């Protein structure tokens, strides 16, 4: 849920400097992806056996990485990529 909130907020933000935008994305990914993959590795089997596993694991790690790649481009750019 927190990722969804963050994604909604940042969809309004634009960073025109490509190098800065990539640096910020990498900084976020370096923290978020290992933590998320650790959670998936540790609890993935338990969650998969639940009635609604997508409630707890909405994204696979590669999907999360793709979404992070859209950060800081503004909502219009994100919508164009869909």
UniProtKB/TrEMBL annotation:
Residues 2-69 form the Exocyst complex subunit Exo70 C-terminal domain. This is Exocyst subunit Exo70 family protein. Keywords: Exocytosis, Protein transport, Transport. GO terms for biological process: exocytosis; protein transport. Component of the exocyst complex. It comes from the Eukaryota. GO terms for cellular component: exocyst. GO terms for molecular function: phosphatidylinositol-4,5-bisphosphate binding. Belongs to the EXO70 family. InterPro entries: Cullin_repeat-like_dom_sf, Exo70, Exo70_C. Pfam families: Exo70_C.
């Amino acid at each position: 849920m927190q990722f969804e909130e963050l994604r909604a907020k940042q969809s309004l933000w634009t960073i025109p400097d490509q190098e800065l935008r990539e640096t910020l994305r990498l900084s976020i990914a370096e923290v978020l992806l290992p933590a998320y993959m650790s959670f998936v590795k540790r609890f993935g089997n338990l969650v998969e056996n639940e009635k609604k596993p997508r409630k707890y694991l909405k994204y696979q790690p590669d999907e999360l990485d793709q979404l992070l790649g859209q950060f800081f481009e503004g909502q219009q750019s994100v919508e164009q990529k869909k």
